[in-house]
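Suppose you are handed only these lines of text.
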Amino acid sequence: MNATDATPARTAAVAATIGRIRAIEREQGVTRAALDAIKTEMMRLAAQEHLFPSAAYPPPPGGEKGANRYLLQEDKDNRFALYLNALNPGNETKPHDHTTWAVVVAVEGQELNKVYRRTDDGADPDTCGLVVDHEIMVEPGRGIALMPEDIHSIHTTGDTPTRHLHMYGLALEVLDGRRGFDPETGKVVLYNKNFMAPLATPRA
Ligand SMILES: [Fe+2]
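From them, the structure of the protein bound to fe (ii) ion can be written out as follows.
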């Protein structure tokens, strides 16, 4: 099967999955239990590797840093945005929040997620105290769900490029209140468009 052949099946599978995800959120709201149910739907989608071939969704060429971020589907009002992120090994982000819920699952490759706990009361908008609370290796068969206020960083540590599905309650392009956190200096910074690579176009 070449990449083009997968397109109609991928479009249908993505639309059906997001339809079920919309229903979960509508019925349960945004809770950790709801996000776990959404993660289960996402894992079923990601397990169909043939729908997301590396030929159609390559990482940046030549082992470059940064992500190729492909938009798979988004509602007209920017809700329920699903992206495929393709990264080379050796990438990492600073700790950040999303201000909307997020679920990340793997088609291929490993991405270490560090999830942080604030040690301050959050009263000072410019300063933070952070410690790593736990780590989750996102890889085929294991995903992560994050509430809007959760703080994580990602680290692509394996030997192979990653192709991961990232689903957000609201599209990244319209979020303007996200924060990045520097655990060394305790500085809080804005973490919005300037941290995101432009959207890439599938090769299919
Ligand atoms: Fe993130």
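What can we learn from it? The CA atoms of residues 93 and 204 lie 28 Å apart. The helical segments are 6-28, 32-46.
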